[in-house]
Design a protein that fits this description.
It contains one helix and three strands, in the order αβββ. The chain is mainly beta. Strands 1-2-3 form a three-stranded parallel sheet, with no helix packed on it. The chain is globular.
Protein backbone atom coordinates (compact mmCIF):
# COMPACT_ATOMS: atom_id res chain seq x y z
CA UNK A 1 0.00 0.00 0.00
CA UNK A 2 1.33 3.41 -0.96
CA UNK A 3 0.88 6.55 1.10
CA UNK A 4 -0.31 10.03 0.21
CA UNK A 5 2.87 11.39 1.77
CA UNK A 6 5.02 9.40 -0.66
CA UNK A 7 2.82 10.44 -3.59
CA UNK A 8 2.97 14.14 -2.69
CA UNK A 9 6.73 13.99 -2.11
CA UNK A 10 7.27 12.57 -5.60
CA UNK A 11 8.75 9.32 -4.28
CA UNK A 12 6.41 7.27 -6.46
CA UNK A 13 7.56 8.74 -9.77
CA UNK A 14 7.75 6.06 -12.45
CA UNK A 15 5.51 3.63 -10.59
CA UNK A 16 3.30 1.26 -12.58
CA UNK A 17 0.99 0.28 -9.73
CA UNK A 18 -0.57 2.54 -7.11
CA UNK A 19 -2.77 1.52 -4.17
CA UNK A 20 -4.00 4.14 -1.73
CA UNK A 21 -6.65 3.70 0.94
CA UNK A 22 -6.52 6.87 3.05
CA UNK A 23 -10.15 7.92 3.56
CA UNK A 24 -9.83 10.23 0.53
CA UNK A 25 -12.85 12.31 -0.44
CA UNK A 26 -11.12 14.03 -3.38
CA UNK A 27 -9.13 12.44 -6.18
CA UNK A 28 -5.44 13.27 -5.57
CA UNK A 29 -4.26 15.42 -8.50
CA UNK A 30 -0.72 14.10 -7.96
CA UNK A 31 -1.84 10.80 -9.49
CA UNK A 32 -2.08 12.54 -12.86
CA UNK A 33 1.67 13.18 -12.65
CA UNK A 34 2.11 9.41 -13.10
CA UNK A 35 0.41 9.46 -16.50
CA UNK A 36 3.48 8.18 -18.37
CA UNK A 37 3.84 4.98 -16.33
CA UNK A 38 0.76 4.14 -14.23
CA UNK A 39 -0.97 0.93 -15.37
CA UNK A 40 -2.85 -0.23 -12.25
CA UNK A 41 -4.72 2.12 -9.92
CA UNK A 42 -6.53 0.95 -6.78
CA UNK A 43 -8.36 3.63 -4.81
CA UNK A 44 -10.75 1.22 -3.10
CA UNK A 45 -11.89 1.93 0.42
CA UNK A 46 -11.95 5.72 0.19
CA UNK A 47 -14.84 8.21 -0.02
CA UNK A 48 -14.52 9.36 -3.63
CA UNK A 49 -17.66 10.47 -5.44
CA UNK A 50 -16.21 11.79 -8.69
CA UNK A 51 -13.17 11.71 -10.94
CA UNK A 52 -11.40 14.75 -12.39
CA UNK A 53 -12.43 15.80 -15.90
CA UNK A 54 -8.89 15.09 -17.15
CA UNK A 55 -8.73 11.53 -15.75
CA UNK A 56 -8.14 10.36 -19.33
CA UNK A 57 -4.59 11.76 -19.08
CA UNK A 58 -3.74 8.40 -17.49
CA UNK A 59 -3.42 6.88 -20.95
CA UNK A 60 -1.35 3.83 -19.89
CA UNK A 61 -3.92 2.82 -17.27
CA UNK A 62 -5.21 -0.72 -17.85
CA UNK A 63 -6.81 -1.73 -14.53
CA UNK A 64 -8.72 0.46 -12.09
CA UNK A 65 -10.41 -0.37 -8.78
CA UNK A 66 -12.82 2.03 -7.05
CA UNK A 67 -14.85 -0.34 -4.86
CA UNK A 68 -16.21 0.87 -1.52
CA UNK A 69 -16.26 4.56 -2.36
Amino acid sequence: MNTMEALRAGRLAGTKELRICADLDLFPREILDLSETLEILDLSGNRLSELPHDFSRLRKLRIVFFSQN
